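Case study: AIM24 family protein.
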Amino acid sequence: MNQPLAGYAPAPVTARMENHGNHMLKVAMQTGNDLLARVGSMVAYEGFIQYEPNPPAVRQIARDWITGEGAPLMKCSGDGLLYLADYGADVVVINLNGDGISVNATNLLAFDAHLSWGVERVKGLAKFAGQGLWNTKISGQGWVALTSRGKPIVVDCGGGEDETYVDPDALVAWSPNLKVKGKRSFKAQSLIGRGSGEAYQMAFSGQGIVVVQPSEDSTDRLRVRG
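Here is what the predicted structure looks like once written out:
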């Protein structure tokens, strides 16, 4: 019985965060190096690891989260190996080296608790969608794990004059230094989004990357907040 399953055994730990296959995140937990992770994402763990759902520090920072009820995060602490997943979505691991990333809240799986982070309104979209779009900006030295509904594409905006256009429902993350603006198009409604109503796009320009998933979030990210 063990021999056919040998290929699925955990690999030796080589980093703080790494993939186990495409759909699972493995985190090497150490005392004093806490983790913030999406509530309900734990699928297994080894060692002694404790969980605190929606701790006070998270509630204070994320009081303006798009749900209006605080961020769906839990603090994980202790020693051992922690395995996280999000309904079989692909997991993308990023090691921030003093830079930052702006992440769609529905695609945020986990990040080092010592990183600087906050919930911010995306500028340039308010006129298209009431109060606009909210994202989580994370920066510093540490690890971040994102999810994608399918294998994502990472588009390098390259710093040229050409803009990169993305369906908001397919957007995962982007470099926070990029310029963002909204665009409305009737002609493109059969090509972008699910083909109903007006087509909203997000236009990115500048030096940085945009991460796009091959599946649209079922949440209407540009609905009116209020």
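For the exam, be able to explain this: The chain has a mean pLDDT of 82.
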